[in-house]
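Inverse folding, one chain.
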């Protein structure tokens, strides 16, 4: 059929495979939730079909309104939100709940793409850089105030999209160095961290002495950086003590192991690893997982859904799932890179980067490589808000790609 020539069949097929496989796994954990997820999937497909019949300019023209609407929904959580699992980041309507941060990500991606598509946009100019950062920071700050640290981390995905548009890579280096200093200082005495910083700085200055000599701005920058890093290393322990107990323990689990907190924050991780490890190469079989069926892992249908895959489908099934995600995310990056429109490209990169961070952090959580921060596995974790939001982003991008392939420009 001629009308279907521009539809990316590989991308749509992978989306359907992930959603259907997810329903099977959620159904294995709790049948009634599997049935609800099937309804959410049907709603998502219906919304997707509507998106495919809409004009692509609609998303570009309406992006400011969608963005503002998403931010207002986040702000509305403070007076009207419902607290679930210690976080006030949900709206409750009768028996249904809605997490607005998932839809705020859509608005942010659209708004960033809209701004970047302006003719005078140049990320190397201060105005473009600061405006782009503000677009991402406004919803990010509201999310931080909720607080929802997990969702806040996802907003760094938009920095990856800006990197494609020319943002200097030094920003990633700065973020990595500051994060590494903070985390290392939790496990190691800060004095040793400071000594290491001074030694590394001395070596760099020694080998670049003639470039640095006489450059007062660079010298001041080096001194300030060393000072900030040293202060950060000493403040890490203080910051850790000020966190709520459950959040502090989730970080400490990385250093002390889940067995040290087996009755509190390490409980989920301990049984998650047990479930994944017990699956062996081919798994125990559908609905045959003793940990899964015994309901030992809390939130097993949401944040910890991957441990169900590991136990019932084993290493083979887990690997195939990871391959599907990798191909899907890689496919979106590939298609985004080949878009004629800047709007399409930036939205595609934003979408792929959001998926990548969700995917990487969620798998890191269930395997003990990252603290538990409440990040769902895209398309796979139970929840109507998450599935619908990711589906909307999926169909918007493939609609943009369809229009791009059928464009004469």
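Residues assigned per position:
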């Amino acid at each position: 059929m001629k009308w279907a020539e521009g539809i990316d069949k590989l991308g749509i097929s992978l989306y359907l495979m992930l959603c259907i496989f997810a329903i099977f796994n959620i159904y294995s954990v709790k049948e009634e939730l599997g049935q609800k997820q099937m309804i959410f999937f049907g709603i998502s497909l219906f919304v997707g079909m509507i998106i495919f019949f809409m004009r692509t300019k609609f998303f570009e023209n309406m992006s400011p309104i969608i963005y503002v609407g998403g931010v207002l929904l986040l702000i509305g959580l403070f007076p009207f939100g419902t607290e679930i699992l210690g976080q006030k980041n949900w709206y409750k309507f009768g028996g249904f709940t809605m997490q607005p941060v998932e839809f705020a990500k859509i608005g942010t991606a659209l708004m960033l793409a809209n701004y970047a598509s302006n003719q005078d946009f140049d990320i190397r100019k201060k105005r473009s850089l600061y405006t782009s950062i503000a677009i991402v920071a406004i919803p990010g700050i509201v999310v931080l105030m909720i607080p929802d640290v997990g969702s806040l981390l996802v907003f760094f995905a938009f920095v990856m999209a800006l990197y494609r548009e020319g943002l200097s890579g030094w920003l990633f280096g700065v973020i990595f160095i500051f994060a590494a200093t903070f985390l290392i200082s939790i496990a190691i005495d800060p004095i040793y961290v400071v000594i290491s910083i001074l030694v590394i700085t001395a070596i760099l200055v020694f080998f670049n002495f003639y470039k640095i000599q006489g450059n007062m701005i660079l010298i001041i920058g080096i001194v300030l950086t060393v000072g900030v890093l040293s202060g950060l290393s000493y403040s890490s322990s203080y910051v850790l003590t000020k966190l709520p107990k459950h959040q502090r323990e989730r970080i400490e689990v990385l250093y002390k192991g889940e067995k040290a907190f087996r009755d509190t924050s390490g409980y989920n991780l301990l049984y998650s690893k047990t479930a994944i490890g017990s699956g062996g190469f081919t798994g125990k079989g559908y609905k045959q997982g003793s940990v899964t069926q015994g309901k030992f892992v809390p939130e097993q249908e949401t944040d910890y859904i991957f441990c169900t895959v590991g136990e019932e489908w084993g290493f083979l099934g887990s690997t195939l799932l990871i391959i599907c995600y990798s191909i899907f995310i890689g496919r979106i990056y590939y298609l985004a890179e080949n878009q004629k429109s800047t709007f399409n490209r930036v939205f595609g990169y934003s979408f792929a980067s959001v998926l990548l961070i969700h995917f990487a952090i969620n798998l890191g959580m269930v395997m003990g490589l990252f603290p538990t921060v409440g990040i769902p596995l895209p398309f796979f974790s139970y929840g109507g808000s998450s599935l619908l939001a990711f589906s909307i982003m999926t169909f918007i991008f493939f609609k943009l790609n369809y229009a791009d392939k059928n464009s004469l420009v």
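The chain has a mean pLDDT of 86. The beta strands are 82-84, 87-93, 96-98.
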